Task: structure prediction
Amino acid sequence: MFDTIMLFVFGLVLLIKGGDWFVDSASNIARRFHVPEILIGATIVSIGTTLPEVMVSAGSALEGNGGLAYGNAIGSIICNTALIAALTIAIRSQQVDRKTFTMPVIFFFIAAIIYMISAYVFGKFTLTIGIILLSLFVIYMVFTVVNAFKIGKREQKTDLEIDETEVETGKKGNGRGEIAKDVVLLIVGAALIALGSRLLVDNGIKIAEWLKVPSSVIGLTFVAIGTSLPELVTAITALVKKHGALSLGNIIGANLFNLVLVSGVSIVISPFSVPVGNTIMGINSTLILDLPIMLLVMMLLTLPPIIRGKISRWQGFVLLAIYAAFFAVQFIL
Result:
């Protein structure tokens, strides 16, 4: 048990340090290329935090359990939005650049519409749907990179201005070398977060079992939160370092990638029907509870800032209340 506790603590240390490097390097990359942090968060950072879920879902699909990706995607989106994003918003409201914020939101709802048509109309996710979702991922990445390049070029400083800034802040040095360093730290940080998450969850479950915690409680705590640990660590680190836009971009991007990348890969590997678990009045609960809640929390998170250009603390509290109710319903079902 001593080894288990030490591995648990080591996983926590890896998470903290990995999150520190991950957020710092992503922020530096955004600053060096004059790209809004929210775009970096919605692309590079989101891919990094979503990769563990891609690997798990792809592995499950190869074993013929592609339906696992469905629950993983929907559950992660609800948790990311109504718990992780909600916590950061409830602590601190923030301004939003509507131009850069709107694009990933539009792509998310396009993907969500495709997803819901497959679930409600066809009741299954076919190879064609998987290819469409992956194509949407490629289109989004190309569109985002091109848009980021335009923004960076428009806001690019002259070499003289950059040199003066570096001299004043004591950061004068080899630009290419610094960029390479940030890229390496970004990759290493993502790897540490993934490894730390696994150590924390696996050993946390062992500790809980040793303490005779019921398996249902373990599943609703360590396992459920474990899949969203990368996003949670990134959000907390970004909040502490006052990079709120990076955190928000990560949540929106991770939610999009859960639909188009995590689900897309799994569907292509192993097409599946909508899983049937619990029922409400004889109807599959995922159709009248999970999917509607997913849309509701994303609309509450994204529509007000698109209209007003600001995310307010009340949104965080409302989202947290919805998540608490959703969490409680799982025990009733």
Observations:
- Residues 175-210 form the longest helix (36 residues).
